[in-house]
Amino acid sequence: MIVSIRSVAKRRRGLIALLGAAALAVGGGTVFAVPACAATAVTFSTHVVPPSISGVPAFDADATAQITVDNATPKVGDTVTVTYDVITPPANNPTTLDIPAGTVLPSGKVVLNGDPTKTVAVTGTLNTEPVLGKAAFPPFKMTGTFTVTDPGPITLSPGDINIHTSYILPLDTVITVNNPPAPVSETITATPATTPNNRAITLGSDSGAAGASVTVTGSGFTPGATVTVAGVQGTTATGEATPVTASGSGGISATLAVSDLHTTGIIAFEGATYDAATAAGPVAYTVIDNTPTPPGSQKLTTSVKAGTLSMTQAGDTVTMSSVNYGEGGASTGNLQTVTVKDFRGGATGWSLTGSVTDFKGPSGAVIGAGKLSWTPVCATTTGSPSTCTAGSPGTVGSGATLASAPNGTVTGGQFTADAGLSLDVPAFSATGSYSGVLTLTLT
After folding, report:
1. What are the average pLDDT values for consecutive 10-residue runs of the chain, which has 443 residues?
2. CB of 283 within 8 A of CB of 203?
3. Phi and psi dihedrals of 192, rounded to 5?
């Protein structure tokens, strides 16, 4: 994907040089009403220390903020993007001089589970408009990410803020939360990480006469576990089954006699019951009907061979819309259509996921991978046994689902997956072309 940023010249008002005019200080604690949403806007008391050069003494003032996330139900190991939206900042410009655009940068922390030692560092973007003399500091947003380490609820509360200005002199307004932690603005619930299923089996033959035995070997099972090797039609047992004990390395070797003419595959699973998510197979197997043909009759036979799970793309390049330097915003485009063909037969579903690299631009400039989001859609071809489901809209980052189809009694079919793409380009990113690589993985 390629995105370009155009340089747009804008007229700037002349500025009068005054000693200390760049200082930011705190204003009143006015609370603004905000629309209802999933997260909660909270008001909390802060202690503000303006730059000493401003001549404004430290004092307390209220702030109103809201914390939101891109994924409220992450798994352990997932990366969550956090947005700290300061609706009513406790800051204003104490001088009569305008502080120009591109010179004020906020940063802060979001507190997890009320523990001041567990915080998420968040950073905003440079102001796009001047902070007028004596005017209140405008609302701003800061973003950051953290990796989920434990399952269970995670609360997110506003934390300390630093407002840095680089006009004339580098100065900071330090805002700390009184009586921390601040009220909880957002709560998410993490679930345990999905354990990869590495169990697999292979057959000594893909067909045999009724009553013949087939050799089944496998790997990836729990060492020492009792593994059942069985014949199935779809996911329904057909009667043939034999137990075997996994070796110390998790391997198995068994011989299974298959007599039921309805058997279409062979599986292997641990424990008392079959679970498609943790089992190996089914691997296609055909029972050849060797019943004697009555006199004067002819036996007609045929077979349907299992195919593969595959995907193709309509193209390998997406050129996204340009944005203007100094304005930034959404650079949009559409994913090249992906066609998934599941011609394996059996009962196993599939998942199509994506991950993206950072977008690299001129002279080492970078737009982070976390700035790319998508809105997936998918469609199922008429007659397909399975039905695909689009992934959730949100950040692509190091891994997100584009589309999937579940396990089922009978699965397969043909599907198309697409997505609207949006890259959040910071306002003052260097002009030029940026490129990142979106990798799709079908499993």
Report:
1. 49 28 32 44 94 87 94 88 94 78 92 93 91 85 93 94 88 92 93 83 90 93 93 83 93 92 90 84 85 84 83 92 91 95 86 92 90 94 93 89 86 94 92 92 91
2. yes
3. -60, 150
Cα separation, 366 vs 12, whole angstroms: 27
Q: Can you tell me the distance from the alpha carbon of 382 to that of 404, in angstroms, rounded to the nearest whole number?
A: 17
**pTM to 2 decimals?**
0.48
CATH fold, domain 24-190, is Immunoglobulin-like (2.60.40)
CB 104 within 8 Å of CB 128: no
What is the Cα–Cα distance from 15 to 13, expressed in whole angstroms?
Answer: 6
- Domain spans of the chain? 24-190, 200-288, 309-442
Question: Please, what is the end-to-end C-alpha distance for the chain in angstroms?
Answer: 23
**59 is written with which tokens?**
């004092």
For the domain bounded by 309-442, which CATH number is listed?
2.60.40
Concatenate the DSSP letters of all residues of 374-398 into one string: EEEEEEE-TT-SS--EEPPSEE-TT
Q: How far is CA 167 from CA 16, 111, 138, 325, in A?
A: 12, 30, 17, 20
Dihedral sign from CA coordinates of 247, 250, 254, 260: positive
CA atoms of 5 and 20, how far apart (whole Å):
34
Give the span between the Cα atoms of 377 and 308, in whole angstroms: 23
Side chain identity at residue 342, one-letter code: D
CATH 3.10.580.10 given to domain 200-288? no
Q: Residue 118 carries which side chain, given as an amino acid letter? A: K
90 with 63: CB under 8 angstroms?
yes
**330 CA to centre of own chain:** 18
Partnered with residue 254 across adjacent β-strands are 216
CA–CA distance, 224 with 245 (Å, rounded to integer): 6
Which token pair is 8? 């747009």
Q: Is-same-fold flag (24-190; 309-442)?
A: yes
Q: How many CB atoms lie within 10 A of CB 277?
A: 11
CB 395 within 8 A of CB 70: yes
The DSSP bridge partners found for residue 330 are 424
Torsion of CA 14, 17, 22, 28, to 10 degrees: -80
> What's the burial of 149, exposed, middle or buried (CB within 10 Å: 0-12/13-18/19+)?
exposed
Residues 6+ apart with CB under 8 A from 435: 1, 2, 3, 359, 360, 361
Q: What's the sign of the alpha-carbon dihedral 270, 271, 276, 281?
A: positive
